[in-house]
Design goal:
Layout (H helix, E strand, L loop, with lengths): L1 H4 L10 H13 L14 H4 L6 H10 L19 H13 L3 H14 L9 H10 L9 H17 L4 H19 L9 H21 L7 H14 L3 H14 L4 H10 L10 H12 L4 H10 L7 H7 L4 H15 L3 H13 L3 H10 L5 H4 L2 H11 L3
Helix pairs in contact: 5-7, 7-9, 8-9, 9-10, 9-11, 10-11, 11-12, 11-13, 12-13, 13-15, 14-15, 15-17, 17-18, 18-19
Length: 384
């Protein structure tokens, strides 16, 4: 069993410390990134309400009349990074320049534009307005300030969907902050209640926004986060995913969030994520199919047991094809380079791993666990 789980670094067998360190990390069952441990182990989380039919009805009606199309290929690569874009958007909210935020929100919906690495600006807009963690300013006071500003924005533009979606994302990220990053059995009743309360507030805002004329993929994405927080059954979560992807077929953030729901530490089973990636790649034409395959599989680029086991069953050629297509069309982001370097190392593709490491400007520790692991893999890629 240990050999299977530690397959990721079997080619480092000569380095006893690295192998033992990985196995200890794998066997701890720790999760990666800013995700919650499965709420099934918490009585407080279990109190979250089952999804009523009325909300599913709203989900079905939200995109009615909207025919989603795959994004056409562009000859011009994006030039702006998520960090630069997020800082600019956040500053506009701090300055309460609501008119400019409205303009950018509308442009994001109509132009369907991307950032370096393929991230949709619509996604970055709401996430960076609503995620103090990304801005390295995470505190209750920061969230309270952003919420107060966003409510002023809603008052100034009562018929606009943009500030309401920004507020929903704020509530959801605030809930994640309030809950903390520990395993479920370390989270207090108070923290679970805060998470549930803030998720309920986000849901109420989304239901209000569903009646507005403007429709936005950020609405579906926020509802997917709520589905995870509330523990929707698999059929409801899948219907939400299907409705979202019908609305915007290559909005890859829908696929990654659904893959998150399918993690075994949440509501899925081993093999669910690779099965989703294969399903999507078969029905979505190129180059979008392989790009979505990469984005889905990148959800399990993490130095931990369950994710390493899931990743080992991916089709490496399809992952590489997707990464190459993304880099060709949208440029190479630091995050994508970290993810693909990890995948290339896992499948022992030394040449591709070396190219990916060369594109990395900052180590993503939620992928590599610590700098020592990153350095060891990079040295292998360079033949050291």
């Amino acid at each position: 069993m240990m050999t299977t789980y530690c397959r990721l670094t079997s080619f480092f067998a000569h380095n006893r410390f690295v192998v033992l360190f990985l196995c200890a990390t794998c066997l701890s069952g720790s999760s990666c990134g800013r995700t919650h441990a499965s709420p099934a182990t918490s009585t407080a989380a279990a109190k979250a309400p089952a999804e009523p039919d009325a909300v599913l009805k709203t989900i079905r009606e939200y995109g009615r009349g909207h025919s989603g199309l795959l994004s056409p290929a562009s000859s011009t690569k994006p030039t702006e990074t998520e960090d630069a874009y997020g800082a600019r958007i956040n500053e506009l909210l701090v300055q309460e320049d609501f008119a400019q935020l409205e303009k950018i929100g509308r442009e994001n919906r109509t132009e369907r534009s991307r950032l370096i690495g393929g991230m949709w600006k619509t996604y970055a807009f709401y996430e960076d307005l609503g995620n103090a963690f990304a801005m390295e300013q995470e505190s209750a006071a920061f969230y309270d300030q952003q919420i107060a500003r966003t409510k002023k924005w809603i008052a100034a533009y009562p018929d606009s969907t943009t500030p309401r979606l920004a507020l929903a994302h704020l509530y959801l990220n605030y809930g994640s902050f309030a809950r903390g990053t520990g395993l479920a059995n370390t989270v207090s009743e108070t923290q679970w209640n805060q998470l549930n309360d803030l998720s309920a507030k986000a849901k109420a805002v989304l239901l209000e926004a569903s009646n507005l004329k403007e429709k936005d993929p950020g609405w579906y994405y926020a509802m997917q986060v709520i589905a995870l927080d509330e523990g929707w059954d698999k059929a409801s979560a899948r219907e939400l995913f299907d409705q979202a992807t019908a609305f915007e077929p290559d909005y890859y953030h829908f696929y990654k969030q659904y893959a998150n729901y399918l993690l075994p530490r949440w509501y899925g089973e081993p093999g669910d994520i690779t099965a989703l990636a294969e399903e999507v790649a078969k029905r979505v034409p190129e180059p979008q199919g392989s790009m979505l395959y990469f984005y889905i599989i990148s959800r399990v680029t993490c130095y931990c047991r369950q994710d390493a086991e899931e990743l080992s069953h991916a089709t490496y050629a399809k992952v590489k094809q997707g990464y190459d297509n993304i880099s060709r069309l949208y440029g190479t982001s630091n995050l994508n380079a970290n993810r693909f370097a990890f995948i290339a190392v896992t499948f022992k593709d030394q040449a591709s791993a070396r190219e990916a490491f060369e594109a990395i400007t900052e180590t993503k520790l939620d992928i590599w666990y610590n700098q020592g692991v990153f350095d060891t893999y990079r040295n292998w890629a360079y033949g050291h």
